[in-house]
Design brief:
heterodimer, A: alpha/beta, Glutaconate Coenzyme A-transferase, 5 helices, B: alpha/beta, 3-stranded antiparallel sheet, 6 helices, about 20% helix
């Protein structure tokens, strides 16, 4: 019997890959949770595209400054050594290739690294891009956190994205609730898989061919949800 | 003698006419010129072009810009309203009453920066390979395909800052600067609401935006966070 990872566990796993001294941008949703789980001994600077390098935790209730917000428009604190700049400078930092990693959410990732994470298909609502296209193109490494399958059970890891692309060929690593996979020369290379899930079972819920690394390991995260 | 301070909203907003293009700074609540945005909604204008990062934050200022259909073109990175039901501006766009130029945020910021810096256009790799650049001029540099993006300028820019002096020098608090620094340079007339007017000039090293880019300063209240 295999148990998929929770949102927090997926974020925890992604956070374990953030190196000491890294400059990191976290997308909205599951990616921002990763900041809660980076190993404490590592010094990591989180970038917010509205102009902060060194974002700290969300401000305690009633203590925030409405003129100091992060990319999710939440009132935040700053860490020691943080600095602030304007949006044009912030995106020059992104586009110029200075950030080590961005962690983004996604609707789909293709085996060739194509990323689809902006929704232009909604019929009633307007389009929303934000900074994802710039981050996907500019960061040195692009990591994705997403559930392996969507609500209807359809695979999100595909041979070719059916959603409009955010950027082509940019994704390096994907953390799902079932596995950790690298985009490796146009193929999906499974590095870790949750205990109890067979290779054929993972392949059955993935819409692109899988290759299993010779040293493929068990994907095990601590219980972060009080058993729920 | 230079004195860019204006005494009231009417003087701050003077000269904004039908069909004007208007850049509005702000990211979340930070740097959002709510006093000026509300005043703009109350002016009997049509055919406005808004150049804003996220349209919902303009709506949340409590403005009648959209309910009175004053806007017919929007350049933005985020045209989505909150919740599942379409917002008034989403409805207007769907009905074809409002046109939309949706832009990646870094390209948006750089197009405005270029507009104020005398750069008519530039190439960037952002958005290449996506539906946004279909049919647009592209060119390879060092093996990377890039798309040509044109500068953005406007008739007016609306900003909020923490402090200003009579020269129009601005001091930002927190993340107030965001798009404002670039917008101030890219607009013909820049109007700023500030929480604090400084009788004594800002110290040169606390002036984040040079007054050369600012035409009018209005003292306005601080705002609480948008819920």
């Amino acid at each position: 019997m295999s148990t998929p990872l929770s949102r927090n566990q997926m974020a925890w796993r992604a956070a374990q890959d953030l190196a000491d001294g890294a400059y990191v941008n976290l997308g909205l949703g599951m990616p921002v949770l990763a900041a809660n789980y980076a190993p404490a001994e590592r010094e990591i600077f989180y970038h917010s595209e509205n102009g902060i390098l060194g974002v700290g935790p969300v401000a305690p209730s009633g203590r925030g400054d409405p003129e100091l917000v992060d990319a999710g428009s939440q009132m935040v604190t700053l860490r020691d050594g943080a600095c602030i700049f304007d949006s044009a400078a912030s995106f020059a930092m992104i586009r110029g290739g200075h950030l080590d990693v961005t962690i983004l959410g996604a609707f789909q990732v293709a085996a060739n690294g194509d990323l689809a994470n902006w929704d232009a298909l909604s019929s009633a609502k307007g389009p929303l891009i934000g900074g994802a296209m710039d981050l996907a193109m500019g960061a040195k490494a692009v990591h994705v956190i997403m559930r392996h399958n969507d609500r209807d059970g359809a695979a999100r890891l595909v041979t070719e994205c059916s959603y409009p692309l955010t950027a082509p060929g940019v994704v390096d690593r994907v953390f799902t609730d079932l596995a950790v996979l690298d985009i490796d020369q146009g193929r999906l290379l499974v590095r870790e898989i949750i205990p109890g899930l067979g290779h054929d079972e993972l392949a059955a819920v993935t819409a692109a061919p899988l290759t299993f690394a010779p040293d493929c390991r068990a994907l095990i995260a601590p219980d972060l949800d009080n058993g729920n | 003698m230079i004195n860019k301070v204006v005494g009231d909203l009417a003087a701050a907003m003077a000269g904004i006419g039908a069909g004007a293009s208007i850049m509005i700074s702000g990211f979340g609540n930070a740097g959002m010129p709510k006093t000026l945005v509300r005043a703009l909604g109350g002016m009997d204008l049509t055919g406005l072009t808004l150049i804003v990062n996220a349209i919902r934050r303009i709506d949340e200022c409590g403005t009648s810009l959209f309910s009175e259909r004053r806007v017919d073109h929007v350049v933005t990175t985020a045209f989505r309203g909150p919740g599942a039901a379409p917002a008034s501006y989403e409805d207007q766009w769907k009905r074809g009453e409002m046109t939309l130029d949706i832009v990646p945020q870094g390209t948006f910021a750089e197009r405005i920066r270029a507009g104020g810096a005398g750069i008519p256009a530039f190439y960037t790799p952002t958005a290449v390979g996506t539906p946004l650049v279909e049919g647009r001029e592209q060119r390879d540099f060092n093996g990377q395909t890039c798309v040509l993006e044109e500068a953005l300028t406007a008739d007016f820019a609306l900003l909020r800052a923490e402090k200003a002096d009579r020269y129009g020098n601005l001091h930002f608090r927190g993340t107030q600067a965001n798009f404002g620094s670039a917008m101030a340079a890219a607009a013909e007339t820049t109007i700023v609401e500030v929480a604090e007017f400084c009788e004594t000039s800002l110290r040169p090293d606390e002036a984040h935006l040079p007054g050369i880019y600012v035409q009018r300063v209005l003292q306005a209240p601080r705002w609480e966070a948008t819920p």
